[in-house]
Amino acid sequence: MATERQPTYAKARVAVLPFENLGLPEDDDLVTGITEAITARLAGLEGLIVIPHQSVRPYKDSNKSAGQISQELGVAYLLIGSVQNVISERTDHPIRIALQLFRASDKRHLWAEIYESDLVELSRVESDIAGKVAAQLGVAVRGPER
Questions:
Q1: pLDDT tens digits for the chain (146 residues)?
Q2: CA distance 114 to 103
Q3: What is the CATH architecture assignment of 12-140?
Q4: Smaller CB count within 10 Å for the chain: N or C?
């Protein structure tokens, strides 16, 4: 009797948790937009399974641990972050995005970075973030996916 052959690799399952707004309440839409854009960019990569933003949205302001959330969502990796609109600091880069990617099973940080950007460069920064997350998860970003 023939047995089904298992694939030699499995796609990494990742959830982008709603980013925390460290700025003013009126920046909530900007923060949600950045979270959704990064989620969409990651979802467009062939080597990843990304939980849709609508499924992750209920975890905004949740008191659940990252371990509980990852188990409920069935993911191995979580991307967490915060966004701060720091325009009042009179900087050339008024948006600060701080990110951390970690493996849920052992809570090991795989990658962390802080980005500073203006609104004009935000799309490029979101693409760069998706590329760096993919690289940490061993997913190659092909030409059309860039």
A1: 444 443 334 689 999 999 999 988 999 999 999 999 999 999 999 889 999 999 999 999 899 998 899 999 999 999 999 999 876 555 555 899 999 999 998 889 999 999 998 888 999 999 999 999 999 999 987 654 44
A2: 19
A3: 3-Layer(aba) Sandwich (3.40)
A4: N
